[in-house]
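QA checklist item 7 of 12: single-chain prediction sanity check.
[x] sequence parsed
[x] length recorded as 165
[x] structure emitted
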Amino acid sequence: MPKGVQPQGLSIELLPYQLQGLHWLLQHENPMLPANADETVQFWKRSAVNAGWYINTATKFSQKESPHLASGGILADDMGLGKTVQMISLILADFEKVGQKISAESGTLIVAPLSVMSNWEQQMRSHIKPENALKVHRYHGSGKGKRLELNNFDVVITSYGKPSN
């Protein structure tokens, strides 16, 4: 399986399987339509018979317009294999791809159980080079109900629950 490129802003070296995971995650963030009739992407193939048409391999439905491809994926490795580091790498790789900090429209929202919110914050501090530090905000507790300019942060970490009034 192909490997992704080690993000420059990461302070540790990713292991080979983590680089493979990064490559997979990047591919699924920006899926591309199949280039030819031999390729299948998200159940879509180009028609070998009708040029410019797409066929859904699951439903056999054909259409002329380009199908909409879903983006994203689920990283579900076993515990202790570095999922958090791989996701931090993905955030950094996205930053490096655009050559600047991510805009408010494309920042990162992490929704996690309360018990691991501080771990996310700590992992970002310890695995990102200081010169590449991200503006991280923990959106939780009594401050969660207040109006806050969340678009001023590169990463917002929040929990599932909402504050009680």
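[x] summary fact logged: The mean pLDDT is 87.
[ ] second reviewer sign-off
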